[in-house]
Amino acid sequence: MNITGMSEHLKDIILAHPDTKKRVDVFALSIYGLVIFLKALGHIDEAVTDLFD
Fold it and tell me: Please, how many CA atoms are within 13 Å of residue 44, restricted to the half-sphere of its CB?
């Protein structure tokens, strides 16, 4: 599965969720997960991940 397909799948889940607070939490966690995943692969610097601390 490519990243675009994964993003579309997450978007569908987020938009279909009835609870707004949980929708925001799922969105934030998906962004955080993408940042951590890219950091593990070495595509982004430590300075970028420090923004989330």
Answer: 14
pTM of the model: 0.31
Quickly list DSSP for 7-40.
Answer: HHHHHHHHHH-S-HHHHHHHHHHHHHHHHHHHHH
Which amino acid type is present at position 21?
K
CA-CA distance, 33 to 28, in Å (whole number)?
9
**Of 39, 13, 35, nearest in space to 26 by CA:** 13
Question: Considering only CA atoms, which of 4, 7, 53 is closest in space to residue 30?
Answer: 7
Q: pLDDT at residue 12 above 50? A: yes
